[in-house]
TrEMBL record, chain A:
Keywords: Ribonucleoprotein, Ribosomal protein. One of its GO terms (molecular function) is structural constituent of ribosome. GO terms for cellular component: mitochondrial large ribosomal subunit. This is Large ribosomal subunit protein bL28m. It comes from the Eukaryota. Belongs to the bacterial ribosomal protein bL28 family.
TrEMBL record, chain B:
One of its GO terms (biological process) is translation. Gene3D superfamilies: Ribosomal protein L9, N-terminal domain. GO terms for cellular component: mitochondrion; ribonucleoprotein complex; ribosome. SUPFAM superfamilies: L9 N-domain-like. This is Large ribosomal subunit protein bL9m. Belongs to the bacterial ribosomal protein bL9 family. Keywords: Ribonucleoprotein, Ribosomal protein. Residues 74-120 form the Ribosomal protein L9 domain. GO terms for molecular function: structural constituent of ribosome. Transmembrane segments: none annotated. InterPro entries: Ribosomal_bL9, Ribosomal_bL9/RNase_H1_N, Ribosomal_bL9_N, Ribosomal_bL9_N_sf.
Amino acid sequence: MSSMAIKTLGKFIKPGIFDKGTGALLPEAYKKFYKEWKLTEPTAVHYIPEEGKFRRDEVTGEVRPIQNHPIPVIYPKEAHEQMWGGEGIVQGFQIRDWRRRRVPHFWMPHLKRSVVYSEVLNKYISVVVTERTISLINSNYGFDHYLLKTPACDLKALLPLTLKRKILQELEKGCPTYQNEPDKQKEVYNKYKQYLSAYTSEEIEWYGYSFPAACKKIEASIEAQNKPVPLKHVYRTQLIEKLKEAGIKETTEEVAVGSATTWLNKINPFAKET
Amino acid sequence: MWKALMKLGPPLAKSDVLLSSEHLLHQQLRTTFVVKRRIKPFLAKQGEPPKKLKTRHYLYDLVKNTNVEKKSDIEVILTSFVEDLGNMGDKVTVRPNYAYYHLLLPGLAVYATPENEAKYKNTETTNVRHFSSPRALHVIKALSRISLSIIMNKDSPWTLQPWHVKTSFRKCGFIVPEYAITMPKREIKGPNLDLEGKEFYIIVTVNKMETVKVRCQIRHWSTDITNRLPYNEEFWKKPTELLFADDELAKVETTKID
């Protein structure tokens, strides 16, 4: 038993989001996505990580271990409707002059509205992007390749993750957008089908949802499964069955509904008496 | 009004904002930044989570700004003829922004992946328009637009030769070799003031492949100043009559300009 396990042996482990409430009902497929999204270390965008395990000081010859502390990055809620390509807001301090006290500074990503083209969906999408997103699309040879190759921890925002799910769903169906051009449909499918092997059908269905959205989704599905039957329907059938058992004639006959015998007709004084 | 305004704030020239020796870029630059900690955070013990960061660990120095750096060119394969760039199937190296917004998004090009290279290898056989050179269409467009004035002598006799046309082209900035010029079948002789300002067509062959009809007008010119004809201003805008009523070259089919 490792030393870490011994330390946590008698301790109370705080329940996580998947241990309580609706979170506990979520399928393993969503948990896998969530792990890929939130619990994987993203690529370093705003700092250059040091390589290797140890470093020797050039002057003193002292050996020290290398531990990379990622720079904390802020992702505001607006980022979820845009595509920042892994960038975020860096909040920190600057010393602009050696005579001055440090001053707080926000390093903001440069945003611009642009267009991306998804070949699988055959759609041009107007989105707010950063320069980094465009260069990533170029280096990955296309928007679809970029989304499908990049893990969720690097896409970060919900917009690209949702688009990734839609693209995967489209691929799973065999690109129905190109129904009228079978050659093109086959070509596009063959181009991107390699990415389908990483996911099962359920994983694709649960990909790219935020935790509250996933909870809502599963709640809706549970509600749809056990839809409450009105008690009047239950009692009516029970009554009819009882009457049938008793052998009453009217139960077997079909009762005419609507037509001339509605209650409104009976009240109408001008109606012709038949 | 201006006096009142001056009272409200100090005049611009006196304010130290513009005259200060300090640079003005203290304001936020909205670009991608790579930063570095000035003070290293505490080392964590083996197998334990990293230690908490102090305020001094949030003191950053800017290492580089990737938005300001020049991006390298990218390679694309054209899927149709692009003016001044190349034919279908040509692999061209262009600036990334131009490639993305003007070639890749409109569908005029694809990324130069190995699969695309194999796909667009033999495009000569396809029935897509090919031009002899990237600039060919540009030249054709320019030549079809101009009205070439061929300046001939008013005093001594001449017969119109290709070298006359070549010289006139050179005066307009077009270097046209003589073999590329197709003259009208009927001879044009002068000096004849009936020819003055009347249009006829010649055909120019670009790179021995594309053909274009060029409008020409004969203008008489004399070395004697008193004998010269008055200058016809903006003659290319005025409608003129044809020199030959049934000009054969006017009916010849030439390379289409879309």
